[in-house]
């Protein structure tokens, strides 16, 4: 009898791995940009493997392996006086203390990828999530809520070391109520193609066109978490070196000054992005960029502070919250072979239509070019 049980478990594990590696695929057989297999958890567990909302068994949720106290949540379900809402479809999962979900993904060895997922906290003020694709891992703080819905989209990036990557989303929290923990929904992946500088722009990815997957049905952008380095950034070439996140926005849901993507600096001086660019000592340079608002009711006096080495510039923008932008430039002389450029927002700002969502100035179309100087007569 024990042999039959063990055989059943092994068969389940084999089925799971097979399903995980045959989700939506690109022409080369690897995972395609978009939701992972059952990434929005709409393919429900079998009712016989449920104890109320609690998932029983590691392979109960199709496409996923779960560990610890995991709940399968239906949109509209109540937790005390709070009504739980699900952004993508009708179902999500909740991770209790030390609980996790994981999935194997077929990828291209050596390629960079970003993971985007929706998360909402339900109990503690200091909730966080560990996201891992070995050997890379990161801690994503989710205590600050940036949208009035309570849900935010987060991005995290990794470099594929093997042809099969195992994504793990883990709740390391320890709460008095073991059922407390964040809700997870809509997990997606996107291949990243790190841009290079050109003879027209020394800044890489200056238009922010290369970045994480943006869900078409969730109009609140994607948060790039703090303390993200440029070697594994979901916003290639850029560093988020602040205490709070920056928001990656798209033209389908926001006003964007140039192209299809931009960055919104949503947390004042705690929301900053930077990049190290190559320069020639003694040469003059022009750093140009666009500052505006995202047409998201972010009304008031917005200011972007730009830094290039030791030179700084403050760019004020009076926002009516209906979309628009202005261009600015900072001229400086390079004093090093590498110059750090950085942008941050001077003020904290809240949206005028709900007074609960952080917002800020939009940054886009960042360019750096050397200025040709005339030789002395």
Automatic annotation (TrEMBL):
GO cellular component terms, semicolon-separated: plant-type cell wall
Record-level GO BP terms: regulation of cell wall pectin metabolic process
GO terms of molecular function: enzyme regulator activity
Domain of life: Eukaryota
Domain DUF642 per the UniProt entry, residue ranges: 34-190, 203-368
Signal sequence, renumbered to the chain: 1-20
Pfam families attached to this UniProt entry: DUF642
Keyword Transcription: no
Cellular localization per UniProt: Secreted, Cell wall
InterPro entries, per the entry: DGR2-like_dom, Galactose-bd-like_sf, Pectin_Meth_Modulator
Protein's name according to its UniProt entry: DUF642 domain-containing protein
Organism of this sequence: Gossypium hirsutum
Gene designation: LOC107953676
């Amino acid at each position: 009898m024990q042999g039959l049980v063990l055989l059943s478990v092994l068969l389940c594990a084999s089925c799971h791995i097979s399903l995980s590696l045959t989700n939506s695929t690109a022409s080369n057989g690897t995972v395609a940009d978009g939701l992972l297999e059952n990434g929005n958890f709409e393919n429900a567990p079998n009712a016989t493997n449920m104890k109320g909302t609690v998932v029983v068994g590691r392979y109960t949720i199709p496409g996923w392996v779960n560990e610890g106290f995991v709940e399968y949540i239906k949109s509209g379900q109540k937790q005390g006086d709070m009504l739980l809402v699900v952004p993508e479809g009708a179902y999500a999962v909740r991770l209790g203390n030390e609980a996790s979900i994981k999935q194997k993904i077929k990828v291209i060895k050596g390629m960079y990828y970003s993971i985007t997922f929706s998360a909402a906290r339900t109990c503690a003020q200091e909730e966080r999530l560990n996201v891992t694709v070995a050997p890379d891992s990161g801690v994503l703080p989710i205590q600050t809520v940036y949208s009035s819905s309570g849900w935010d989209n987060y991005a995290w990036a990794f470099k594929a070391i093997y042809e099969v990557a195992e994504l793990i989303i883990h709740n390391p929290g320890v709460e008095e109520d073991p059922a407390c923990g964040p809700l997870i929904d809509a997990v997606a992946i996107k291949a990243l193609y790190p841009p290079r500088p050109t003879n027209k722009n020394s800044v890489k990815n200056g238009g922010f066109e290369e970045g994480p997957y943006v869900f078409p049905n969730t109009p609140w952008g994607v948060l790039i978490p703090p303390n993200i380095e440029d070697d594994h950034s979901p916003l290639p070439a850029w560093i988020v070196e602040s205490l709070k996140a920056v928001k990656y926005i798209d033209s389908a849901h926001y006003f964007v000054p140039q192209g299809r993507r931009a960055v919104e600096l949503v947390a004042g001086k705690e929301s900053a992005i930077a990049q190290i660019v190559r320069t020639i000592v003694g040469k003059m340079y022009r750093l140009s960029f666009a500052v505006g608002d995202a047409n998201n009711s972010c009304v008031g006096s917005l200011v972007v502070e730009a830094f290039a080495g030791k030179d700084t510039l403050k760019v004020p923008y009076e926002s009516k919250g209906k979309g628009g932008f202005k261009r600015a430039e900072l001229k400086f002389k390079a004093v090093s072979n590498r110059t750090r450029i950085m942008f941050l927002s001077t003020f904290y700002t809240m949206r005028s239509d709900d007074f609960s969502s952080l917002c800020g100035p939009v940054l886009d179309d960042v360019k750096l070019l050397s200025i040709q100087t005339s030789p002395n007569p």
